[in-house]
Amino acid sequence: MHVLVVASQKGGTGKTTLSGHIAVQAERSGFGPVVLIDTDPQAGLSEWWNVRTADTPAFTQITDSLPKTLTGLSQIGVKLVVIDTPPALGGSIAATVAQADVVLIPCQPSPHDLRAVGGTVDIVRRAGKPMIFIVNRTRARTRLTADAAIALSQHGTVAPKMIEDRQDFRTAMIDGRTAVELDPMGKAAEEIAGLWRYLADRLEIRRAA
Prior knowledge:
Blueprint: E1 2-6, H1 15-28, E2 34-38, H2 44-50, E3 58-59, H3 66-75, E4 80-84, H4 91-97, E5 102-107, H5 111-127, E6 131-138, H6 143-153, E7 157-158, E8 163-164, H7 167-174, H8 179-182, H9 187-208
Parallel strand pairs: 1-4, 1-5, 2-3, 2-4, 5-6, 6-7, 6-8
Helix pairs in contact: 1-2, 1-9
């Protein structure tokens, strides 16, 4: 079983939207069963899942402790767990990151977001976990987007597929769907599919190691 933790010190980077979209795309790509866990007190991912009509991905609460919950999920054959985290740093985030196979760090292409990324990087490095940056909510063909990718590459690996700021992401999340379910042939769906292919390759590399 693989554990993907989506983490960022900065609020508003799109962690919840990415968590839901990645989980759905993984299921659609045959990588299930996939389970979502929401550790954010704001419970945005939980609320999205509660209005969702599709049976997958599954959702679970943490029972007793995160390690025990993950052990139980592994025992019943879950292949991927995607964990959304709150926009704050502290012991709870460090404990969650400690359970990750890979940590995905979304970052918007803005100076404020780039300055805030250091705290998340420090936690991931202390835990000794691989991390992947995703430049999220971008504007097409802007100098700032390119500069953000270059700046993030100084800290670690940057996903080659950026996610643009598209209305399909916001519209789909209102009623528990994702962009691919709203418009399977749309640009937003294409971007998420590309991101998942990249993440799946990274997770498969770790499984084979």
